[in-house]
Amino acid sequence: MAHDTTRVLECLVQFGNEQQKQYIFEQIQKEIPTMSKSLYAHHVIIKFLTYGTDAQKDTIKKSLHGHVCKLARHSIGCRVLEYCYNDVCNSAERFQLVQEFYGREYAILKTTDVKNIEELLASKTATGQRANVLENMQENIMPCIQKDLLSTSIVHRVMHEYIRNANEKGREEMIDAVKEKLIKMIHSRDGARVAIHCLWYGTNKDRKLLIKSLKSFVIKIAKEEQGYPVLWTIFDVVDDTKLVSKVVLQELMSSFDEVINDAHGKKVLMYLIAPRNTKHLQYDLVQLMKTSDTLATSKKDADIRQHELFEFCKSYFLEYFTDNILSTLKDGFKGFMMTEMIERLSPDDKLTSFYTSLSSVLSTSSVEPQAETNLIENQIAHNVLRHLIIADGKRQKKHKQKTTLVSTLLSSISPDTLRTWILCNRGCFIFVMMLEHGQPDECKQIRSLLVPSAVETLKRQTFTGAKILVEKLLSSSS
Predict the structure, then answer these.
(1) Domains plus CATH for the chain?
(2) Is 452 helix (H, G, I), strand (E, B) or coil?
């Protein structure tokens, strides 16, 4: 079919009346599988899948039965198959298309007794039946890999089903074939899961080639909803942290602002600071990551691996939080990332600039209840500051640092400004946290600041924070 002809037909399908559409459909109905593989004619099929009636769409779906594997490994046909699978079919219809990868019998007789590959394999009780299904899957997938036709969701699904059910030999063959081509698949959920399995079960050489294939695409992967867990897996299982730092972390750190301000990218950075922390990271994905703990494919201790990665990137985190302290205080996720970072820093890490920056912002914060600059009474900023004081207290107990957050706040912010904090509930709680987690000399300084001058003011307040602070001050001074 010529290019001009298909353009005319596309316009008629999109803008024509029902009679015109039906007439065209009746003329092409028997040629749907052939047209689906035509450079120009396949656009007409896609138009019918988009603008056709439900009956016409159902006819096209049924016409593809028996041709799914051929279309999947055809550079044009895979486009029609992908559109039909992703945008037109429901869950049951998708499984009917997927079944054709399991063997010829499923291209003719679709099974409705099972809903997924695991149920189907479990039903294959006779000797060799399970192996036959997996062999058929491999035979139908390999041509797609060899032809680099790896952008379709249906192929990703079949590959994911295969790699999680195949024996060791079959899995190794799959990893060897696809390890340098995974960048074309990571945008989909199943494609990303294939990449994760390749990292879990691949050799060190496989992992090295896989990571190198991601070069210049790391930011894109970090910002993709399905892609960022692949980076988590790299952090979890790859022993060569120098390679990971050079290829993955260096690219992430060079675009730090872009990554940390992205909904998915910030989760990659959080994983570097607090891996597998379900307080801040999606529970089911963290559980998925734990699968690698049972595999004997990584030799380096997990704590050592995490430490080496954190050491590479900690200066970038500290610099960002120091320069962007105000916006970080107002962002719950970034704020807790900052507190987790503080707790992990070593005694050699200098925090003076960071503490000074934080004190500077707080010293100019208004305590007027409705003021936009009221960080002390701002719920997010208050929680972040509270956790920072706790994290710094833990760090102080561990490393015995001379410079602490509490000491910097007390020395950098004027006494008059500090006393205004007792005029709001959360400001009182900040003092309570400093008394609970500060050093003895710092607590003494706080009492000197507030007792007795501010006690009467606190007693006149009706909010809870004031009452608790008075109790702390009086019990400490007695």
Answers:
(1) 179-322 (1.25.10.10), 324-478 (1.25.10.10)
(2) coil
> Cα–Cα–Cα angle for 379, 464, 417, nearest 5°?
60
Biggest distance spanned by C-alpha atoms of the chain: 97
CA distance 453 to 368: 21
| Residue 136, helix vs strand vs coil | helix
- Report DSSP letters for 181-217, one per residue: SGGGTTTSHHHHHHHHHHHHHS-HHHHHHHHHHTTT-
pTM: 0.91
Nearest to 413 by CA among 434, 394, 392: 434
d(C-alpha 238, C-alpha 244), whole Å: 8
Whole-angstrom distance, CA of residue 232 vs CA of residue 195:
11
**Model pLDDT for residues 347-359, shown as the tens digit of each residue:** 767 788 999 999 9
CA distances from 138 to 50, 67, 75, 220 (A): 32, 17, 19, 29
Which tokens is 223 given? 């910002």
Residue 66 CA, distance from chain mean position: 37
Q: Which amino acid is at 305?
A: R
pLDDT of residue 370: 53
Query: The tokens of 54 are what?
Result: 């439900």
Average pLDDT over the chain, rounded to whole? 92
Kindly state the average pLDDT of the residues 260-266: 97
